Amino acid sequence: MLLDDEGNELILPKSEQIPTDYFKKGESVRAVVKKVDLRANSPVILLSRTHPSFLAKLLELEVPEIFDGLISIKKIVREPGERAKVAVESYDDRIDPVGACVGMKGSRIHGIVRELKNENIDIINFTTNIQLLLQRSLTPAKISSMNINEENKHVEVFMPADQVSLAIGKRGVNIKLAQELTGYNIDVFRDDLEQGEFDIDLDEFTDEIDGWVIDELKKVGCDTARSVLALTDEELIRRTDLEVETIKDVKQILGREFDDDEEEAK
Q: Which domain holds residue 258?
């Protein structure tokens, strides 16, 4: 049970706590009021530490420029305890909004990260240029190029193979937050195929590989045969919900296509 300074009972359900939250008796707890209901003429106050507004309030406390209205928080998306992305904009050309939020050597952001149980926080400059916003939203990955379909809110992003896992992020969190921040569906592709090296879209294997398996691979940025074969079994096990036997069967099916091609080349 939590009590405020006036003795009112506050509720902080598990669903509104960061997964690694642990509180001791008598400890002060930081949270935002998410909802207030009346029950038998008594207020029922629901708190939250997972809502984006909690991070917004922490930033307001740590960054005077936000408190004073010189920097505006345009949008916050979070996967509590794992990662957050914050788009900020400055109303004063002399103020770098990202630098102001991070602080000298990270002095301002470090305290917030600790409060959020080491949640990674990406602070990015907001822009109405959707291509630039998409590029920034996929931080820390570096993008080579992209094809944007504004009508369908869909974008194909191309990047070197070593950047794909960064763009997707652990359990797909990074790309999920980038999609929430921008409002675009994002598909990630490798663009480092050697000249003359062909690849095959995974959808071409629906007669041999179950559709749900292909969908699971696509969730982690593997849209083609070579993108799957480029990852180790251990990496695929870690990033997907697939069993090791399934991964080995899939790789065997995909590998046969290139083995056959190499035999014909000889």
A: 202-265
